[in-house]
């Protein structure tokens, strides 16, 4: 098992860049922003009787496990993730990484 993690942050549309900037400020090398739709219990809003599809941004950040806490703390600070309906972040351990040149070169040294 490697000491690499994937931090997944899901926020409302327009907040992905803030998450990415916070991650880099806290020590990440970068990240990827994907777009999606929410379907949670608090996501069922309507406008004039028409359901609104809540748009989300998913930020994926591959980083060293020892940086997880600093990165998560900075993400929470800039996005107020502790408040309801602002988003969620979680960490997944990563067994292998390929195709990320700057991380692989550091791991192999």
What's this model, at a glance?
The chain is α+β, with helices and mostly antiparallel strands and about 110 residues long. Helices cover about 30% and strands about 35% of the residues.
Please characterize this protein's 3D structure.
- By secondary structure, this protein is an alpha+beta fold.
- It has one domain: Alpha-Beta Plaits, CATH 3.30.70.120.
- 28% of the residues lie in helices and 36% in strands.
- The protein is built from three helices and six strands, in the order βαββββαβα.
- The strands form two sheets. Strands 2-5-1-6 form a four-stranded antiparallel beta sheet, covered by helices on one side. A two-stranded antiparallel ribbon has the order 3-4.
- A hairpin with a 2-residue loop joins β3 and β4.
- It is globular.
- The protein starts with a strand and ends with a helix.
- The mean pLDDT is 83.
Which key terms come to mind for this protein?
single chain, 109 residues, alpha+beta, Alpha-Beta Plaits, 4-stranded antiparallel sheet, 3 helices, 6 strands, globular
